[in-house]
Amino acid sequence: MYILVLFIPLISSITAGLFGRKIGEKGAGAFTSCCIVATACISWWILYEVAFNASPTYLHLWTWMDISSFTVSFALMFDSLSATMLIVVTTVSSLVHIYSTQYMAGDPHLPRFMSYLSFFTFFMLILVTADNLLQLFIGWEGVGLCSYLLINFWYTRIQANKSAIKAMVVNRVGDAALAIAMFILFYTFKSLDFNVIFPLVPYLLNDTLVLGTFEVNTITAVGILLLLGAAGKSAQLGLHTWLPDAMEAPTPVSALIHAATMVTAGIFLIIRFSPLIEYNPTTLVAITVIGAMTAFFAATVGLVQNDIKKVIAYSTCSQLGYMLFACGISNYNVALFHLMNHAFFKALLFLSAGCVIHAMVDEQDMRKLGGLIKSLPFTYSMMLIGSLSLMGFPFLTGFYSKDAILELAYASYTTHGTFAHWLGTISAFFTAFYSTRLIYLTFLSNTNAPQYAFKSSHENPPQMTIPLVILAFGSIYLGYIFRDPFIGVGSDFFQNSIFVNPQNLNLLEAEFIAPITKWTPVLLSFTGAASAMILYHFAPNIIYYIKTSIFGKTIYTFLNNKWHFDSIYNYYIVKPLFKWGHDVSYKILDRGIIEVFGPHGVQLLVKQSTKWLSSLQSGFLYNYAFTIFLGTTTFLIFMANLHFSLLQIEVLIIILSFSVLLAI
């Protein structure tokens, strides 16, 4: 059963990819959906066995590499952390598969699409069940590959090409950092096995690494590199630019990438390496600060987005910031709890947005929607539930984890913890504002949609609505059901899969902070939601005056340009690299040094040499006679010298033979 959870998605992907033409679109959709649903059922059973019955399982499948002291096994490790990730990945993926069979109906490449989805799920399962870093790296690279294939699924669209390349290139930065961390870990611990590395960390806290003229602490260097790797995959500030552009993919892909798979891989990496990061205060501070700034940055940018999918994408980026700074304050279980909750309500939001787009003939601009509450009441209800859970409405799923993160940040009583608490609290206000704005502009405002699209809009078929109902159930009740096992005081749900340094524990302190501090995020969320309704429904003129004022226009332009990150990267990194690539790499190296001294230069030299040698074969007798005379004379001159060495004699013989050959 444990092995099946990994290989059923692989079989599903291979079958749909290789035999899609034989089984047809409906066959590919039905087969892959059934396979992933079966995988999800097995994953829930594994959660019961491994986590609730406290029976972690290790399966050694085969020895992968055995080279001198470098031994790597292909093995599966099922602990509470892996089991939790399994249910997140497979449950959301199964619902996305079912949804896609109808959303992508009519697309001639549906079998390829379903194959990519299953392949994505397979690599994510490789990542979360790995027992060593090299095996994890395979899953890490695999989800990057599948994200490229899925973002670029409609490969005839130029924007899809550019977005896929951007996602791949930006992720290369994080992948390179993780690869370097892997080399350092093997150099230090002589192993990549988690069960070898983690117990030895306390004994190597003072170990140093010499980099040129610098000497750095090994654990600190590895921690920072892991943070960079996680920042690339989980779209943290600085390496976040690929995430909004990934919206060029079909909507089910957005739900899968942004809810349960790729973007959660970076958070999982940090949680998995908690036994190493916990001994590194510098990395913990960096994680907290970057996570808090990401949450704030993405929330502010989400305020001014008009594409319905991009609003949800920036909310994903913001929520990933919450998860990261929860890890930075050593509350990995709360970060994982929010990761699981977020997967359900974010998948609900994306798939609901897909229903709107599907019903409105692929229209995504919220300014061209509106008034859909009458024609799409079910979709409105689903999106409302997802939005309320996202903004942390009391007693919905998002409330239990998001507010817990903010309380724990405050209760850490550190500078970086307080910094994260207040940025996260302000971000909660912005989150409520743009979530309400999305609901109002899409469903409640007067419609700006074309008449033909508005009149023909209708609810979608069961293949698209049933997954929404299941996700809505999770968005309402999941937080309440899993709160005590995940973050309850004294809970041993995660056993040894997560390590927290005793001096960093503050779960109990968070229970005794002032009530006003606990309720501040909730009050700000209500304020943000009310502000959006008032401004857009009762006082739209105020928004106009704000946007047209000098200060408001400056702020709006700054946020609409995403804090100018793309402009800065293009001006200071991309353009100089392109210029260097053309002027130096291409002109000087490729067309210069490499062509002169490389294969092209050798080819020209051989060509010219053979041409010169060919010219010696003139066909005139006096040329041949002169060659024979010259060779004979040279031979006699050397023979006149009595001090011959063996080498000189051999040289004379070669010269004479060559002369005779030329004369023939």
Mean pLDDT: 88
User: Judging from the principal axes of the Cα atoms, what is the shape?
Assistant: globular
Any idea what the radius of gyration is? 32 Å
- Which strand order spans the largest sheet, edge to edge or round the barrel? 1-2
Secondary structure tally, helices = 27
The helicity comes to: over 70%
Distance between the termini: 81 Å
Counted beta strands:
4
Are there runs of 5+ residues with pLDDT below 50, and where?
none
Return the structural class: mainly alpha
Strand content: under 5%
Largest sheet, if any? 2 strands, antiparallel
Overview of the molecule:
By secondary structure, this protein is mainly alpha-helical. The protein is built from 27 helices and 4 strands. It has helices at residues 4-18, 20-52, 80-103, 110-129, 133-151, 158-189, 194-200, 218-233, 242-245, 251-259, 262-272, 274-277, 281-302, 308-328, 332-359, 377-390, 397-411, 415-444, 451-456, 462-487, 515-538, 540-548, 550-560, 565-597, 599-616, 621-640, 646-663, and strands at 57-67, 70-78, 208-211, 214-217. The protein has a two-stranded antiparallel sheet. Strand 1 (57-67) and strand 2 form a beta hairpin. Helix 3 (80-103) runs parallel beside helix 15, helix 16 packs antiparallel against helix 18 (415-444) and helix 18 packs parallel to helix 21 (515-538). The N and C termini lie far apart (81 Å).
